[in-house]
Design brief:
It contains 7 helices and 5 strands, in the order E-E-H-H-H-E-H-H-E-H-E-H. With 198 residues, the protein is an alpha/beta fold.
Length: 198
């Protein structure tokens, strides 16, 4: 990442073309060998002066028609990073979670989530309000996973969506007596294959 000065970065490009590379005020140097970025909430992700300048100078357009070059670049970059055919920018993690559920479930269907998962506890039951979907909650183990036998027993009908990991950190939801960890990819694949087998 390069600092922008007078709208020009170290590579000679205008700030408007390098919005994705602009450093942020919420990037904090730690005493360790890595950088910590606090993305818990919009209330802590305050843009830096360089970011504000880049936003003011950004070329904008209608993203529905593919005219917003920054959005298009971000979606393409994410699609490439994750090996997907396309990416979609949404305004919040809550919106992204809801879209993922709605892409997998029809009205009247059910999701299985850990009882402390963010989508169940902190997103105002939007899957029920907006998508007409109910939830079965399961206990979460100390490593952040749900027991596979519990998942199997909770399935009442064929098909459905199972959230087997949560992006929330224990610092965000301090009242929860579970520390969330990244779930091993093998477990994700196993649950995916099991759901396809049903």
């Amino acid at each position: 990442m390069t600092q922008t000065t007078n709208g020009i970065n170290g590579n000679g490009h205008s700030a408007s073309t390098d919005l994705l590379d602009t450093p942020s005020a919420y990037t904090q140097k730690s005493n360790k060998t890595h950088t910590s970025i606090d993305l818990r909430s919009d209330t802590v992700t305050v843009p830096s002066l360089e970011m504000r300048q880049a936003m003011a100078e950004a070329i904008v357009g209608d993203d529905v028609y593919g005219e917003d070059t920054t959005t298009v670049r971000l979606e393409q970059r994410c699609a490439e990073l994750f090996g997907k055919e396309a990416g979609l920018f949404v305004a919040s993690g809550t919106m992204g979670n809801l879209l993922a559920i709605m892409a997998h479930c029809q009205r009247g269907e059910e999701i299985i989530v850990g009882r402390y998962n963010h989508i169940h506890r902190w997103e105002q039951g939007n899957y029920a309000q907006l998508a007409g979907i109910s939830a079965t909650t399961l206990e979460v183990k100390p490593d952040g996973t749900m027991d596979l036998d519990d998942i199997e027993q909770a399935i009442r009908v064929q098909g459905g969506y199972i959230q087997i990991y949560d992006e929330s950190s224990d610092t965000e939801v301090t009242s929860i007596p579970v520390r969330y960890f990244r779930i091993p990819l093998l477990l994700v694949v196993f649950v995916y294959e099991y759901c396809n087998w049903l």
